[in-house]
Amino acid sequence: MTDTARDAADGGLRVVVTGATGNVGTSVVEALRGRPEVASVTGVARRAPDWQPEGTTWVAADVDPDGDDLVSLFRGADAVVHLAWKFQPTHDPVTTWRTNVLGSIRVFEAAAAAGVPALVHASSVGAYSPGPKDREVDESWPTHGWPQAAYCREKSYLERYLDAYELKHPQTRVVRMRPGFLFKREAASEQRRIFAGSWLPTQWVRPPFVPVIPDLPGLKFQALHTDDAAAAFAEAVLRPVRGAFNLAADPPVDAATLAGLLEARPLRVPLPPVRAALSAAWRLRLVPASPDLFDAVLRLPLMDSARARTELDWEPRYTAVEALREFLEGLREHAGMDTAPLAS
Asked: Quick one: DSSP state of residue 203?
């Protein structure tokens, strides 16, 4: 038993989770609830959900710069897991910057002011600089992001902030989790709204309606079931670890993988017309996902998760293909949960 687990077993840990009602947050709450070392979980969200898991207390609070008092909320906690994030509106990066960057900084500083011993931050593969698709990189790969994409800029900026934060607050154990793309059935409706918008008919993700998948240069990424990522977050809370952890499941996903899931065939197509069509759709507000994020996906490196497997004793239960298959089934079934972000 680790020192952290031994201390927890004495009285039980109190863990605060921001952004606890979203895709990752709901899974992290469940993962923490299932650990005997955790006495209580406080879920923080802008709107308290109807979902009431045992052992969880909900607090309606906003992390934005003009939001609620976080220091009082965090005082007495053994760990803060920071997941709160705003993906939209992509046409207004100032709004997402206020929540994602300035709000995150408020969380970090409030945790330090409240004397919280451990801070677990949800970074992302999106924080990484462009990298290889033919080999995997470890956590030492530069985290400068793809500067054109707001999501990557924000994740990268927070990496730089935490570099200085760790020097200023050496007593705080800081962990940065860097997962690949996260999928589960219950998040399907939310992710459809965030990335595809209302224009995507659900029948289009059924095999007969998708004859081909564009095989684009650089289209190779890593996916992970959200519950598997949440298990790693829980281990990061309970074990005396610091630093960054890559999280990804095998195999890497490419056009052939997607084609297999949809019973389609991959078709090699040039990138410029696809990018131009997406850009036009975004400018016309037909799709919410920006072409800059599309550019970033094509440049993201593949990650080596060896450190998580070794130091967190972590192994994903689902393959990337299984996670995507569950997500696609969720799309077809309009799956969701009784939380505002995940409502179907």
From this structure: G
Q: What is the pLDDT of residues 152-211, one digit of tens each?
A: 999 999 999 999 999 999 999 999 999 999 999 999 999 988 888 766 666 666 666 788
In 3D, which of 55, 64, 74 has the Cα closest to residue 12?
Answer: 55
What is the DSSP-derived secondary structure letter of residue 129? P
Q: Do 214 and 173 form a contact (C-beta atoms < 8 A)?
A: no
C-alpha span between 1 and 97 (Å, rounded): 40
Distance between CA atoms of residues 287 and 307, nearest Å = 37
**pLDDT, tens only, 229-238:** 999 999 999 9
The pTM of the whole model exceeds 0.90? yes
Helix (H, G, I), strand (E, B) or coil at 254: strand
At residue 81, φ and ψ (nearest 5 deg) are: -105, 115
Closest-CA residue to 319 (of 232, 238, 223, 233)? 223
Give the residue among 31, 30, 58 at the shortest CA–CA distance from 46: 58
- Neighbour tally for 227: CB within 10 Å: 21
Residue 116 vs residues 40, 57, 78, 101, 334: alpha-carbon distances, Å: 15, 18, 6, 20, 39
Task: Determine the Cα angle at 244 with ends 239 and 246, to 5°.
Answer: 100
Q: Copy the structure tokens of residue 330.
A: 């969720």
Residue 312 DSSP label: S
